[in-house]
Amino acid sequence: MNILLLGSGGREHAFAWKIVNSQNCTKLFVAPGNAGTAEIAENVSLSINDFEAIINFVIDHQINMVVVGPEEPLVRGIVDHFQKNESTKDIPIIGPSQEGARMEGSKDFSKQFMERHGIPTAASATFTKENLEDGIAFIEKQSIPVVLKADGLAAGKGVLICQSHQEAKDSLKEMLVDGMFGEASSKVVVEQFLDGIELSVFVATDGKSYKILPEAKDYKRIGEADTGLNTGGMGAVSPVPFADEAFMQKVEERVVIPTVNGLEKENIRYTGFLFIGLMNIGGDPYVIEYNVRMGDPETQAVLPRIKSDFVDLLHAMGTMQLENYEIELQAFTTTTVVMVAGGYPGTYPKGDLITGLKGISHSTNTSLVFHAGTCHNKTGDIVTNGGRVIAVTGIGENIENALSNAYQTVSSISWNQHYFRKDIGQDILKLVK
């Protein structure tokens, strides 16, 4: 198959690596891609939100399947756009419809969906600028800490955990009135804080059948010991020791099955990946959020653990044949460490020369190097082009080996003022010892 992959981050480089290693991939195009995808596929200068240009490219290049990496084009309705076009309506496109993408595009929509289908989640209420005073009154009745979530997409940064009622009330005003997160916070979900251990569960679905992929735990804060600002993700570990068979059975019965069935009952077309952010509270799963695509950097930890053919999985999803797909997993552990630009998640420079990449293999038995915010400069050197720049995934027979392999590779890569967390997986290590 000729395949088009949309996106430019570490998740997409991991997808590209997995796709080109399939015997079912003839040619892979990545739009717009990064310096890492350029080494294994053909990058295409297309905007992920220019649907007409994407459709024209698909027709001109006889593309047999389209894989949508990030959430924004899904929320904007790229799948619906393809299916309304006579020339592309029969081409498998991996991602949910615009209505399905509301599971991530609107926190309020997803909370109401959970309530309708009896899916365990934190108690919450939603407010706008018009009923700000009701929101303030609601906050005063909540225990501390209290969680505030921008309703719309905010690049993974629209969640505030407030440690006092005053902070929560001030933040609600900043979000609703002052537009802290722009249009995304024109509506805010105020939510009960769930105290437990977080993990991410990934589901592939064709709208009827589903397959549960390897779970992962990610690390969202910029600082060690989970301090500082939220980021898009600073690292990940898979598998997660506390996600044992008994816990995952609860996840499947209480969350995955009612979610997939609920989408079907509501006639919401959903062909793609569903990322379920969970909290393990005393052995019981509670849903924090849905995302309508694979996570980043969890993808970089999860995909290496899938042994069976990845293109087969994608095609089975896109052609409603997922029930016939047998997923095989690797027994090893993976740990991903994200290297970021100095100043991230605030302001940061771009264009810094990255050294050490030429001296290491991007794919070995012990580590994998995935590019995120990278590009080539005019002289062909690889330079920084974003906040999260490189993700290194270590592979090992246990978490200690995997972490050692990841950090060994990280130590060989550098650029001006690069930063990474040195404590990825340390909490998991304590659990297994």
UniProtKB/TrEMBL annotation:
Gene Ontology terms for molecular function = phosphoribosylamine-glycine ligase activity
Segments forming domain ATP-grasp: 111-319
- Coiled-coil-forming residues are none
Instruction: Note whether Plastid occurs among the keywords.
Output: no
Q: Which Gene3D superfamilies match?
A: 3.40.50.20, ATP-grasp fold, A domain, ATP-grasp fold, B domain, Phosphoribosylglycinamide synthetase, C-terminal domain
Please tell me whether the keyword ATP-binding is annotated for this protein: yes
Its recorded reaction(s) are: 5-phospho-beta-D-ribosylamine + glycine + ATP = N(1)-(5-phospho-beta-D-ribosyl)glycinamide + ADP + phosphate + H(+)
Give the top-rank taxon of the lineage listed in the UniProt record for this protein: Bacteria
Q: Which InterPro entries match?
A: ATP-grasp, ATP_grasp_subdomain_1, PreATP-grasp_dom_sf, PRibGlycinamid_synth_ATP-grasp, PRibGlycinamide_synth, PRibGlycinamide_synth_C-dom, PRibGlycinamide_synth_C_sf, PRibGlycinamide_synth_N
Keyword annotations of the record: ATP-binding, Ligase, Nucleotide-binding, Purine biosynthesis
The pathway noted for it is: Purine metabolism; IMP biosynthesis via de novo pathway; N(1)-(5-phospho-D-ribosyl)glycinamide from 5-phospho-alpha-D-ribose 1-diphosphate: step 2/2
- Known EC number: 6.3.4.13
Looking up Pfam families in the UniProt record yields: GARS_A, GARS_C, GARS_N
Q: Give the family, as the similarity comment puts it.
A: Belongs to the GARS family.
Protein name according to UniProt: Phosphoribosylamine--glycine ligase
Source organism of the structure: Belliella kenyensis
- List the gene name: purD
